[in-house]
TrEMBL record:
Gene3D superfamilies: 1.20.1050.10, Glutaredoxin. GO terms for biological process: glutathione metabolic process. It is an enzyme of class 2 (transferase). GO terms for cellular component: cytoplasm. This is glutathione transferase. It comes from Rhizophagus irregularis. InterPro entries: Glutathione-S-Trfase_C-like (IPR010987), Glutathione-S-Trfase_C_sf (IPR036282), Glutathione_S-Trfase (IPR040079), Glutathione_S-Trfase_N (IPR004045), GST_C (IPR004046), Thioredoxin-like_sf (IPR036249). It catalyses: RX + glutathione = an S-substituted glutathione + a halide anion + H(+). Keywords: Transferase. Its EC number is 2.5.1.18. Residues 1-81 form the GST N-terminal domain. The keyword Transferase applies. Residues 67-195 form the GST C-terminal domain. GO terms for molecular function: glutathione binding; glutathione transferase activity.
Length: 195
C-alpha cells in the first residue's frame, strides 16, 4: 500500500487528509505543492483539472477533493489499522455524519474562508488604500457609509483587531464610525443590543 498526498501541509484541506490518515493509522507520503505547481499544464492534466490541491494516489488509484478523498480513505481503510470510526456503519448515524458534513461545507467553511482571507491574505489592502487620507475617496462619501453597518457588527462581535491593528484603518473607522448621524442610529435602533 502506497498512499501519497499531493498538497502543502499549510492548506487546511491537506491537513484534513493528514488528520484522517493519522486517525486511521495509515502511513503515507506527503508531496508538498506550491501555487505554481498546481497551475502547470502537467498538474492540470494529470492531477486536478481545476488546479487545486490536495490530490491523493493510492496504489495507482487517484482522487481529488478533500471530502471525497476522506470518504474514500474511510470506506477503504476504516477499522483496518485503528479503532477510530469516522463514518459509522449504522445508516442513521452515518446520515447524521453526512448531514453535518453538508452543514460544514455549506455554512461553516465558506464563510470562514472569506473571513480568514481578510485576516491573512488581504489584511493590508485597506491600510494601503487609506494611506495619507481620512476617507476612501478623500472626503466622507457613500463609499465610506456603505462600510459602516457590517464593520460595526464585526467589531461588536469581537473582530475589532482587523481594524485596531492597522493605524490608517483605525483612524478611518473612528472617522466614520463616530459620526453623529451613525451614533444616533445606533441609539435609536438599539444596535448595541443586537450583537
Amino acid at each position: 500500500m502506497t498512499i501519497t498526498v499531493f498538497g502543502t501541509p499549510a492548506s487546511p484541506f491537506t491537513l484534513i487528509l493528514i488528520y484522517v490518515l493519522k486517525e486511521l493509522g495509515l502511513s503515507f507520503e506527503n508531496v508538498p505543492t506550491t501555487h505554481e505547481d498546481i497551475k502547470t499544464p502537467e498538474y492540470l492534466a494529470t492531477k486536478h483539472p481545476f488546479g487545486i490541491s490536495p490530490v491523493l494516489t493510492d496504489d495507482g488509484f487517484q482522487v481529488y477533493e478533500s471530502r471525497a478523498i476522506a470518504r474514500y480513505l474511510i470506506n477503504k481503510y476504516q477499522g483496518t489499522k485503528s479503532s477510530t470510526v469516522l463514518i459509522p456503519s449504522d445508516v442513521h448515524k452515518a446520515a447524521l455524519v453526512e448531514q453535518f458534513i453538508s452543514v460544514e461545507t455549506s455554512y461553516y467553511t465558506h464563510p470562514l474562508i472569506k473571513m480568514l482571507s481578510q485576516l491573512i491574505l488581504a489584511k493590508n489592502i485597506y491600510e494601503k488604500l487609506l494611506e495619507g487620507k481620512d476617507y476612501l475617496a478623500g472626503e466622507f462619501s457613500l463609499a465610506d457609509l456603505l462600510h459602516i453597518p457590517l464593520t460595526f457588527y464585526a467589531i461588536k462581535a469581537g473582530e475589532g483587531d482587523l481594524w485596531n491593528k492597522r493605524p490608517n484603518v483605525l483612524r478611518w473607522w473612528k472617522n466614520i464610525g463616530e459620526r453623529e448621524c451613525w451614533k444616533n442610529i445606533v441609539t435609536e435602533y438599539k444596535l448595541d443590543d443586537v450583537v
